[in-house]
Specification:
Number of strands: 13
Low-confidence stretches: none
CATH class of the largest domain: Alpha Beta
CATH architecture of the largest domain: 3-Layer(aba) Sandwich
Strand order of the largest sheet: 1-7-6-4-5
CATH superfamily of the largest domain: Thiolase/Chalcone synthase
Structural class: alpha/beta
Shape: globular
Length: 328
Amino acid sequence: MPRARIIGTGSALPERILTNHDLERTLDTNDEWITTRTGIKQRRIAAEGQFTSTFAVEASRRALAMAGVDAAELDLIVLGTVTPDFPFPATACIVQHEIGAVRAAAFDLSAACSGFVYGLSIADKYIRMGMARKALVIGAEVLSRVVDWTDRNTCILFGDGAGAAIVAANTDDDNGILSTHIFSNGSFWNTLYQPGCGSRNPAGNDRTIEDRLFFIKMDGNDVFKHAVRGMDEAASAALAANGMSAADISLFIPHQANRRIIDATSKRLGLSEDKVFVNLHNYGNTSAASIPIALDEANRANRIKKGDLVLLDAFGGGFTYGSALMRW
């Protein structure tokens, strides 16, 4: 049975940088308050005329170039996002067209910040079953279009961007994805969500407009508690399934939502700071894009070497959470 292996990564980010000091001009907040509570110093914001597909396409092309793979070789494209270009068609289909992946089945996946790990799990299963040889997994978001820029509790957190990975069948050695583990707990669906613009609260509904339901709503304290527990559970499941401990991990790449969540999760797992990759301060929470952006940065900075054990760990609205353990 082939093992799925990441052979190329890519990422793409808007040029515009919005710092905490910039936010001080429009909100009752300051750099010290934001940094202390979140660890975020700045985030990237999409320009007019840039969409989720804009960054997804660019990240995909970079991943294909690193992998030395032609888009026409792809069998599958899975795109994790909560900010698609349109309700339909899938943004993955737009990416398929733009990069020339003429043979690939393409679809979007909505698992919020866990979207990339969920997508990686699907690609892994397709490859293991022999139903695909090469897959493109993307996490992409333009969250700046769905945050309330008057709400200092949420707008300070989010940013835009995309990350992608080429996943291919590997029969040469034992390197590749060892296991993936995905979970959900729908009891807390309304703790972090966008209440408007769906069938419950349509975009043109007076209530949707008056109550600003098209923006992200979040109970930060509840999210924090469940995020630490969920990420600990998902990471521990990956380690247990492979008979490993935190001491075996070369690099831990968690979802970049909040520095306190990352620190608390790492402490629970017993991981030293030098094994934890963090770029949250530069980009904020990019939801489904956060892990693949971090993975690409770590890869291009040579933080990952062949044979290293890499653990990905995500948590997002839904609640959804999951992990992937791979030997690079």
